[in-house]
Write a structure and sequence with these properties.
- The protein is of the alpha+beta class.
- The longest helix has 29 residues.
- The chain has eight helices and nine strands.
- The radius of gyration is 20 Å and the shape is globular.
- The two termini are about 25 Å apart.
Length: about 280
């Protein structure tokens, strides 16, 4: 893991990539899994999505959108879940970033911990009314809303049970901005699907950061999916399992794949800069 961390420190600017959003670097957080060989040791350690399925190693990564290079990664078991592993990533967040995350990750506690690093956040929230503990304070001219996040008594009780700390204090009320927009996708057959998206952000100034621009920015979250595809289909190979036959070797091999991915992405980024093109992994 240490070799991966050392190589992951290279920024987009060091590679010659200057693409930023309002002067901010844009990384995203998400998770994926890698299949392991069938063995009792791996099954006990990592678990699987089904009783007859292969053991699965879970990775949650923090990936730069411009270069698709991994900044940080937490590697764990399938049963740990993405949220638990994501809690190990705040050390890779810092000022000068605007971080993107999908709706499976946000909680008020996780949002506050990430914002405390100095990074700005644009995090998608689920659409049901109970998932976002916020009350509208003001509807802004661009249609976004200033809201106050407030931990309810029920949320506090659940958090205390989960942390086994029955004296944990209530989370502080926090001002944030809610941006709601719709995405329309169309199939080759002409069918369309409309999806409502809500993102909560630390970017409170609607004049400097209009809602339309934040909606466009959130689309960059999909760059991490391209990084996952390259890692699994090109670096590892389609339908191939990791070869490590012990938990330690499986984790070591996963970090090795991440190192190779970052090396390839570095070469691609530098070549793209020379050619005046966008970096593309295949």
């Amino acid at each position: 893991g240490r070799s991966f961390e050392t190589g992951a420190e290279t920024s987009g600017e060091e590679l010659g990539l200057s693409a930023r959003w309002h002067g901010l670097e844009v990384p995203a957080i998400d998770g994926t899994t890698l299949e392991l060989g069938r063995s009792d040791a791996l099954a006990r350690e990592f678990g699987s999505s089904s009783e007859a399925g292969r053991p699965l190693l879970r990775i949650v990564g923090h990936v730069r959108a411009a270069s698709r290079r991994w900044i940080a990664a937490e590697i764990g078991t399938y049963h740990q879940g993405e949220n638990e592993l994501a809690d190990g990533l705040p050390g890779s967040l810092k000022g000068g970033m605007v971080n993107l995350a999908d709706r499976g990750f946000p909680s008020m506690e996780r949002y506050l911990a990430a914002a405390a690093t100095g990074a700005d956040l644009v995090w998608r929230w689920k659409n049901d009314s109970k998932s976002l503990p916020a009350k509208t304070l003001e509807v802004l001219p661009d249609g976004s809303e200033l809201v106050v996040m407030r931990e309810s008594a029920g949320m506090l009780a659940r958090r205390r049970r989960a942390s086994r700390n029955h004296a944990a204090p209530r989370l502080p009320d926090t001002i944030a901005r809610l941006v709601t927009f719709t995405i329309v996708t169309r199939t080759a057959g002409g069918r369309s699907k409309t999806t409502r998206v809500r993102v909560l952000t630390t970017l409170l100034d609607h004049e400097e950061f209009p809602a339309r621009e934040i909606a466009s920015l959130y689309v960059q979250r999909w760059q991490i999916e391209i990084a996952f595809l390259h890692l699994k289909a090109t670096v590892r190979g389609t339908r191939r399992e990791l070869r490590g036959q012990s938990p330690a070797l499986a984790r070591q091999e996963a970090f090795g794949l991440l190192i190779i991915h970052n090396l390839v992405a570095t070469v691609v980024a530098r070549a793209a800069v020379q050619a005046g093109a966008d970096p593309k992994l295949s």
